[in-house]
Amino acid sequence: MAEAALPSADKGAKISRREWLNYAWLASLGILLVDLAGIGYLFSMPRFKEGEFGGVFSLGQVSNLPPKKTPPVNFPKGRFWLVHTEQGVLALYKVCTHLGCLYGWNDQEGKFICPCHGSQFQYDGTYIRGPAPRSLDRFVVQVLDQDGNVLAETDPETGDPVPLPDDPNVIVKVDTGRKILGEPNA
Ligand code: FES
Questions:
Q1: What distance lies between CA 160 and its chain's CA centroid?
Q2: Is residue 10 pLDDT above 60, yes or no?
Q3: What is the rounded distance in angstroms from the CA atom of residue 185 to the CA atom of residue 183?
Q4: In angstroms, how far apart are the furthest CA atoms of the chain?
Q5: pLDDT, tens digit, for every residue of 43-87?
Q6: Nearest CA to ligand 1 atom 3
Q7: 18 burial type by CB count under 10 A (0-12 exposed, 13-18 middle, 19+ buried)
Q8: Which ligand 1 atom is the nearest neighbour of the CA of 130?
Q9: Which atom of ligand 1 is nearest to the CA of 118?
Q10: Alpha carbon of 185 to ligand 1 centroid (Å)
């Protein structure tokens, strides 16, 4: 009895046009998903590294910070002045709210003075006089425990100073990516 003819190897390897289109579609979908995952990963990463302007600056433990009412501390890399008022800590953006010059602290007069057009500001950044349209801008200050939990931070609505707890081990950070505009002049 004659054996039934088996399909040839060539014939078995062939794929139809429909199958080929399905494989191509699946490959495109896979590439798209990989791209989307990559974009999602990039967006989930902080835009600026810690210690780089636009990112977060760690000032260390509370015990490292200057006592209340002592002269402001200059943080050139973070572009802010740290002041410790009776009510708590503020990080004042170093750029004048008039036309963007860098103002400085005048120890004799006990205020910030801009060398360009003479705007003046109190220790806490409140406008005193000059062409500046508002008080100094502030960055968000955060107080964290040793596990990185945020215990307190600057209220973005008011920009009020952040009181420091008695615990000398809590950490203070300044987020230069979150700026709060100064109060407009009355
Ligand atoms: S830029 Fe500071 S007063 Fe004009």
A1: 18
A2: no
A3: 6
A4: 117
A5: 666 677 777 899 999 999 998 898 999 999 999 999 999 999 999
A6: 117
A7: exposed
A8: 3
A9: 3
A10: 15
- Cα of 160 vs centre of ligand 1, distance in Å, is 24
Distance 133 CA to ligand 1 centre (A): 10
Lining residues, ligand 1, CB within 6 Å = 96, 98-101, 114, 116-119, 130-132
Centre of ligand 1 from the C-alpha of residue 126, in Å: 15
Question: Quick count: other Cβ atoms within 10 Å of Cβ 20?
Answer: 10
User: Which tens digits make up the pLDDT trace of 124-169?
Assistant: 999 999 999 999 999 999 999 999 999 999 999 999 999 999 888 8
* DSSP state, residue 56: E
Which pLDDT value is given to residue 34? 77
Three-state SS for 59? strand
Task: State the burial class of residue 164 (Cβ atoms within 10 Å of its Cβ: 0-12, 13-18, 19+).
Answer: buried
